[in-house]
Amino acid sequence: MEEKKIGLKGLTCANCAGKIEDAVARLAETEAVSVNLMRQEMGLWLNNGADWEMVKTEIAGIVHRLEPEVEVIFGETDCRNACCGDCCGQADCHEKEHNHGEEISWKRLFLRFGLGLILFFGAIFAKGNGKIPLYLASYAVFGYDVLLRAAKNISRGQVFDENFLMSLSTIGAIAIGEMPEAVFVMLFYQVGEAFQDYAVARSRKSITSLLDIRPDFARLVENGESREVPPERVQVGECILVKAGERIPLDGIVVEGRAMLDTAALTGESLPRNVQKGDVVRSGCINMDGTLQISVEKPFGESTVMKILELVENAAGKKSKTERFITRFAKIYTPVVVLLAVILAFLPPFLGLGAFSVWFGRALVFLVVSCPCALVLSVPLGYFAGIGAASRRGILVKGGEDMDTLCHLEQVVFDKTGTLTKGRFSVTEIEGDVLALAAAGEAMSNHPIAQAVVEYYHETIGRALPEAEQYQELGGYGISYEADGERVLLGNSRLMEREKIPYQKAAGIGTVIYVAKGGRYMGHILVADTPKEGIGDALAALRRQGVRQMVMLTGDRKETADAVAKELGLDGVYSELLPEDKVELLERLNRIYAGKTAFVGDGINDAPVLAGADLGIAMGGIGSDAAIEAADVVLMDDDIGKLVTGIRIAKNTRSIVRQNIVFALGVKILVLLLSIPGIATMWMAVFADVGVAVIAILNAMRKKA
User: Fold this and answer.
1) What's the CATH number of domain 426-528, 3.10.290.10, 3.20.20.70, 3.40.1110.10, 3.20.20.60?
2) Do the Cβ atoms of 689 and 372 come closer than 8 Å?
3) 632 annotated active-site
4) Which of 448, 666, 678, 680 matches a 20 to 30 Å C-alpha distance to 633?
5) What's 7-37 look like in SS3?
6) Are 191 and 372 a contacting pair, CB within 8 Å?
7) Angle formed by the axes of helices 14-25 and 373-392, nearest 10°
8) Which helix (H) or strand (E) element contains residue 561?
9) Residue 287: helix, strand or coil by DSSP?
10) Span 2-74: which CATH code?
11) 161, 251, 415, 632: the active-site residue
12) First to last CA, the chain
């Protein structure tokens, strides 16, 4: 399938977004559709061989039929249609234009409300026949746009929308002589709509501001001088200059200078990090002091900051079961309530239970309450706000469905190295003259164990390393290379057994590197790792959050794995595993234990296991392509305690979503029931629609942790 992104500029109605999504999904060329209201964007997956140009025409027709004022944007856009910086480098021009437009909109709104209220109060104090024209004029000022949209939608065959329901109910009120109430209802509706638009805009702005880590420019160094350019114009291998107080625009390696970095935007950590020549730095961090010259390693589109922004912004499109249920419920709810309103208007008078005008007025209340916007908007907004709150703390959750899974975790399976342990190894024992042989081969690897051996060699011997030729990684076993015309093997006991090389098993605690040359066993090196500081407290906190079982899977030796598991109080441990063994064991644990299972690993070596778990959680995901691709949740540093924070945010998010559902449905049902005996008035019905929506939206925006 081919994925397309389509901008829907100006789409703010959640109910209409659902209708657009449903209509596009019915096209023969589409496999799946997801409308992201928060980003005003549609994700579209096409069937193979679909005519994209024809599909574009059909989609534009659907959107303009349902929402005429929405602008449909296909592919690359200019500064008037998209966030600036991608095309012209002027990152603030769109924001200035947006703020200016917003200011004009509010001025028009105040002018409209002022004129409408003058006419309304004039009608109240007028005498005789002067009242009716003033009431009608006031009604026209407050409701002309609603009436026009209703008429246009009816002409397009879209009858049961909020504009039609509000128009019918207020015109009906005028018809039965309730003109003041009709004007007041339209006024209250417009006030509620204004507050609802403001609340949605504010929530979107507050959430995106948490992720406002996109750099505005990069200082490109050329011929000893620097000049400001858009970050996307900088090529891999070029050098950039980052001064104190500036945000690092691209991933790279420090080639000159030293500084303290504020990494809070990526990891949520308040403590700064010291970097100097040779250190890797990631885009999005802020240079607190000093000046850094950085050699760029990745283009802007593949930088850490862009990965994070794309992941979090796309998260709203990955809908939870609750969101999907509410969408389906909304499609049934409105027609059912409209049908009940028709029955309420005609059946009681037919049975002789009262005048038609009385029951018609009560039926109008039903119509006003029938719009489900409070539900279809506040529920996805609640998840989006939760995802934003987690992102601010360095926890990237890929969607509402993953947020729900976090709430129900009962079993967590851990990788050992770099997850439960520090992943910073040191050489504790050497048997035989094998240090140079081991360091020469391990110098070709980025694995922490390999780096520990190389570092120990430089500290103790200090000479240049022998050259390793024909280097080869042996997945799950170790490595091999050639030196002095002979094959050198470095790896675990399985490697020695596979190659049928007699060896002496090491007895110490730690990871053993057995060394053989030319088919002869030469000795071993023991490298030890220790549990992370505070890991015991983090695991205890996980148990308090409802995790009942914790298991460790590792490729390390049984003795080492058992020692770590015992120290941390884990419920189970499986050691000396190959990558495929981990996948098989995880499947077995899923069958044995009925609850939701998460696998926590480094996201590089454990990508298959991360993908196979109910919830894959990658540790230390800064700059790791494999982590972001394979995992459902990415912890941007190596702190297991962040998982506890993520679960707490997820549970609070779920609680808020449930509150909104119960509150919205409860108020609507109450008003519907009160309208049957005539207790509920029209303005109460309007509150049950737009008033409830505003309250639910504000509740969705509140603090999650």
Assistant:
1) 3.40.1110.10
2) no
3) no
4) 448
5) EEECCCCHHHHHHHHHHHHCCCCEEEEEEEC
6) no
7) 90
8) helix 558-568
9) strand
10) 3.30.70.100
11) 415
12) 38
Show the tokens assigned to 654: 């779920």
Cα angle vertex 15, ends 13, 19, to 5°?
Answer: 115
Please return the burial class of 185, using the count of CB atoms within 10 Å of its CB with bins 0-12, 13-18 and 19+: buried
DSSP-assigned letters across all residues of 71-87: EEEESS--TTTS-TTSS
Which token pair is 64? 């303009």
C-alpha 498 chain-centroid distance: 45
pLDDT tens by residue, 654-671:
999 999 889 988 998 898
> Which residues make Cβ contacts (< 8 Å) with residue 345, sequence separation at least 6?
356, 359, 360, 362, 363
What distance in Å separates the CA atoms of residue 499 and residue 461, rounded to the nearest whole number?
A: 30
Residue 136's φ and ψ, nearest 5 degrees, are -65, -40
Which residues, 6 or more positions from 47, have their beta carbon under 8 angstroms from its beta carbon? 1, 28, 29, 30, 31
Burial tier of 345 (Cβ tally within 10 Å: 0-12, 13-18, 19+): buried
pLDDT > 70 fraction of the chain, expressed in percent and rounded: 86
Q: In angstroms, what is the C-alpha Rg of the chain?
A: 32
Tokens standing for residue 130: 């002067």
Residue 349 scores a pLDDT above 60: yes
Map tokens 């625009």 to a residue: 249
**What is the token pair recorded at 139?**
């009604």
Domain 395-420+532-636 listed as CATH 3.40.50.300: no
Instruction: Tell how far CA 321 is from the center of its chain.
Output: 16
Residue linked to tokens 């899974």: 405
Please check whether residue 64 is in contact with residue 158, taking contact to mean a CB–CB distance below 8 angstroms: no
Architecture of domain 235-298: Distorted Sandwich (2.70)
One-letter amino acid for residue 235 of the chain:
Q
Q: CA 652, 657, 661, 663 torsion: positive or negative?
A: positive
Domain ranges of the chain: 2-74, 97-208+317-369+654-701, 235-298, 395-420+532-636, 426-528
Contact 378, 663 (CB under 8 A): no
Question: Listing from the earlier edge strand, what are the strands of the sheet with 549-553?
Answer: 395-397, 633-635, 615-619, 596-601, 409-415, 549-553, 572-574
* Integer Cα distance of 607 and 626 in angstroms: 7
Question: Given CA atoms 170, 174, 176, 179 in this order, what sign does their dihedral have?
Answer: positive
Tell me how far apart the alpha carbons of residues 300 and 423 are, in angstroms, rounded to a whole number.
Answer: 29
Phi-psi bin for 113: left (phi > 0), alpha (psi -120 to 50), beta? Answer: alpha
Q: What is the 3-state secondary structure (H, E, C) of 156-180?
A: CCCCCCHHHHHHHHHHHHHHCCCHH
Cα 379 to Cα 606: distance, rounded to the nearest angstrom: 34
Query: pLDDT of 380-425, one tens digit each?
Result: 778 888 888 888 888 888 888 888 899 889 999 998 877 888 777 8
